[in-house]
Amino acid sequence: MDAFSDPNIETVVIMSSAQVGKTEILNNVIGYHVSQDPSPMLVVQPTLDMAQTWSKDRLAPMLRDTPILQGLVKDPRARDSGNTTLHKIFPGGHITACGANSPSSLASRPVRLVLCDEVDRYPVSAGSEGDPVSLARKRATTFWNRKIGLFSTPTNKANSRIETAFEESDKRFFYVPCLHCGHKQVLKWAQVRWEPEQPETAAYACAECGTLWTDAERVRSIRQGEWVATSTSRRVAGFHLSALYSPWGNLEAGVIEFLEAKKQPATLRVWVNTFLGEPWEEQGDAVDDYAVAEHREDWGEMVPKEVLMLTAGVDVQDDRLEVEIVGWGRDEESWSH
Ligand SMILES: [Zn+2]
Fold it and tell me: Quick one: how far is CA 246 from the chain centroid?
């Protein structure tokens, strides 16, 4: 939220797990710009339906229940308000909500703030008009003090808009101090420890001193944490946050969720996206050469019984022929000679 009112920052990227307050941040930015710095704003949701739902369920209650905002945006149900669910006027600006699947709603009037929620769930193209995020950004080109907000839980690594945007940002991570040794660290799932079949024993192990933190200690160290940029970028601030930082969740629940999710690739993928806030890399997309190399073994000169077929490849060099004979078994297992 501070980054949104920092004049040196134009684009704010938030890649996070689900349920850590992303949409609340988006709403607060809107509230600030209704009350303190009135501006025209565009909010993009994945679909027009979701834009309606967000406006009714999230925006309307904030405008109704926040004392400083009361009366600034007229209720659409009021007579002559001129306001609708998707377009609300207030003194000095307006809030327009639209769907990334609807090119006509994206091509609306000029706006100073463009807030794109759940960008990894946008269609590749808005109708035949092209990338919805680029279309939305164009609405702000005439404002020198424009702000672009991109928010999302990531999906697939191969086509994650939010990860691409985060990679181009200054990549901020939240460092928290160990209450025992003071070491500042980014919370990682690999540091979560538990006894087999006993999620209730879950604790966080400090990456430096190894002391196990209770959940209360984890929350206390988060309160003393700070954002640290790990890259440089002109005017793009990027933030990553996983559910390990959530003050609402606890490690035991996280472990239970993980043990259930890891039974199936499809559910593990959802867990990686929504709990770790990381994009999912499809297995088979990338092969770890070291892991493959570790499976090598010396088998002597005999053709092992698992071999179903032999192939020979010959490479003609200037002074010799290099021959490799390979035995092939099931699942592409191979024996080379
Ligand atoms: Zn420590």
Answer: 15
pLDDT category at 287 given cuts 50, 70, 90 is low
Q: Which residue has the higher pLDDT, 17 or 74?
A: 17
Å from CA of 226 to ligand 1 middle: 17
Q: How far is the CA of 219 from the centre of ligand 1 (A)?
A: 15
Q: What is the number of other CB atoms lying within 10 angstroms of the CB of residue 138?
A: 13
- Report which of residues 81 and 193 the model is more confident about: 193
Q: What percent of the chain clears pLDDT 70, i.e. is strictly above it?
A: 98
Tell me how far the alpha carbon of residue 243 lies from the centroid of ligand 1, in angstroms: 20
Residue 46: what are its φ and ψ, rounded to 5°? -55, -40
Question: How many angstroms is it from 184 CA to the middle of ligand 1?
Answer: 8
Give the DSSP per-residue string, 101-150.
T-HHHHS-S--SEEEE-SGGGS-SSSTTS--HHHHHHHTTTT-TT-EEEE
Q: Calculate how far, in angstroms, residue 94's C-alpha sits from the geometric centre of ligand 1.
A: 49
Domain parsing of the chain, residue ranges: 295-336
